[in-house]
Structures are given as structure tokens and as C-alpha cells.
């Protein structure tokens, strides 16, 4: 990999790591999701600093070009993150439904007389 590409990949991965840490610090990103993004940023940094690792993984997987390996891992990440968020949205939808039903039930109860 040419030095310009290595420098660009390192700068972008460090920028991603700093952005993630700052988002957690400012409470824009919850800690439960931060570990995944930090792992991805660290993996990008590792592959940028050690390009031979990408070539090794490419050969190990029987893929012809290293860029196809990057594309494959990127697609797998997108699929898994979409699956995770689909599960989370389903959980939240069920929670909203349950809470709405509880509120409707509580509104139907007759008002209680104040004690005394």
C-alpha cells in the first residue's frame, strides 16, 4: 500500500476513534454501542498500520483482492448492525405498546378520594 494511503487510513481511523470517545463523553453515544465502534476503529487502525495482515486475511479466506476483503467485512458489519438495531427497535416498540396500554388502563380507573 502506498505511504499516502497508509497515512490517510491512519488519520481517518484516529479521527474515528477520537470522534467516538468524544461522542460518549458528550453523551451522544451510549456506552453499550461505543465498544463496537471502538473495536471497528481499532481494526481499521490495525489494518492501516499492518497492511500485511489484510493480505494474510485475504489469502486465508480465498479472496482474490484485499479490497474485496475490506468490502466483505464492511458488508458483514452493516448486516450485523442492521440486525442489532432491528431487534432493538422491536424491543422498544413492544415497550411503547405496553406502556401505552398501562397508561390507558390507569386513565380508566376511577379517581381515588384523598385520605382524611
Task: Offer a few descriptive terms.
116 residues, mainly alpha, single chain
Sequence-ordered SSE layout with sheet pairings:
Blueprint (H helix, E strand, L loop, with lengths): L2 H23 L5 H19 L1 H11 L4 H43 L8
Helix pairs in contact: 1-2, 2-3, 3-4
Order of helices and strands: HHHH
Q: Outline the biggest β-sheet.
A: none
What structural class do you assign from the helix and strand content?
Answer: mainly alpha
Tell me, rounded to a whole number, the average pLDDT.
91
The geometry reads as: elongated
Q: In which range does the helix fraction lie?
A: over 70%
Determine Rg (CA atoms, Å): 23 Å
Give the termini distance in whole angstroms. Answer: 82 Å
Low-confidence stretches: none
Number of strands: 0
Which percent band covers the strand fraction? Answer: under 5%
Number of helices: 4
Task: Please give a structural write-up.
It is elongated, with a radius of gyration of 23 Å. It has helices at 3-25, 31-49, 51-61, 66-108. It has a domain at 3-80. Helix 1 (3-25) packs antiparallel against helix 2. It is mainly alpha-helical and 116 residues long. The chain is built from four helices and no strands.
Amino acid at each position: 500500500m502506498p505511504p499516502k494511503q497508509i497515512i490517510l487510513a491512519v488519520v481517518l481511523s484516529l479521527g474515528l476513534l477520537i470522534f467516538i470517545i468524544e461522542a460518549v463523553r458528550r453523551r451522544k453515544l451510549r456506552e453499550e454501542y461505543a465498544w463496537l465502534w471502538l473495536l471497528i476503529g481499532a481494526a481499521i487502525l490495525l489494518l492501516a498500520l499492518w497492511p500485511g495482515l489484510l493480505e494474510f486475511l485475504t489469502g486465508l479466506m480465498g479472496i482474490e483482492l484485499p479490497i474485496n476483503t475490506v468490502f466483505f467485512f464492511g458488508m458483514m458489519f452493516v448486516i450485523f448492525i442492521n440486525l442489532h438495531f432491528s431487534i432493538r427497535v422491536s424491543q422498544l416498540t413492544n415497550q411503547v405498546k405496553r406502556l401505552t396500554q398501562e397508561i390507558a388502563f390507569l386513565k380508566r380507573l376511577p379517581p381515588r378520594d384523598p385520605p382524611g
